[in-house]
Design goal:
By secondary structure, the chain is of the alpha/beta class. The protein contains seven helices and seven strands; from the N terminus they run ααβαβαβαβαβαββ. The protein has a seven-stranded mixed sheet with strand order 3-2-1-4-5-7-6, sandwiched between helices. Helix 1 packs antiparallel against helix 3. It is globular. Bound molecules: S-adenosylmethionine.
Length: about 220
Amino acid sequence: MSLLALPSVRRIHGWLLEHHGDTLDADRLPAIAAELERLAADQVPGAVVELGCYQGAMALWMRTVLDTTGQQYRPVHVYDSFEGLPERGPHDPQLFPTGFLRATEEEVLALHDQWGLARPAVHCGWFADTLPSRLPDRIAFAYLDGDYYDSIRLSLAATVPRLAPGGALIVDDYADVEANPKAWNGLPGVKAACDDHFGAPSPMTVLFGTGDLAFGRYYRPAGR
Ligand SMILES: C[S@@+](CC[C@H](N)C(=O)[O-])C[C@H]1O[C@@H](n2cnc3c(N)ncnc32)[C@H](O)[C@@H]1O
């Protein structure tokens, strides 16, 4: 049964698309939901983490999906500077000003309270300071949404070794335009960071949507 057949899920889905269309869309939500549903089916152990949570919209969606798929026990941890984007590096385009996408921990918590959902564990600070010591030891799913080359490099270095067998991560804004010419390619530093982290041949696969979805996925095979 589709999760959207449940009125409570449909309400949150619609509200997120209406109020958080700057970071979420009708392609991203089902792609993330499918990953989280698979964790239950495959009995993958570990936490769910989001690196770059901004106002907590995707965190709210992940909590919603986990709770409606019998995974209330699975913790969600989110990470953000709450100072917005850092200075861009040489791989990153001059698209956003430094400090763009500033939010607060209180916004993230209030959003979950508003919907009566369990709050995530919020880790405030720059990835370089928080990730090495404040990630769970075992991660079932990670959503990497730090926008810039350095942020994604740090995110991969910290999460890949902690991925549980059968676990996966999705990198937002990963645009492989050869594989998917429709993908939004506004932040090329993201794919460059993945290419530099993994080397060739890349183990990343491309997810497709109905629009300009730019999602790359890394899966850690079970049994390794
Ligand atoms: C596109 S927003 C995240 C949107 C969120 N994932 C969602 O779906 O609603 C990117 C976030 O990454 C954070 N960020 C980027 N680089 C960071 C870094 N090096 N350390 C901490 N936060 C970072 C920014 O503060 C910003 O809130």
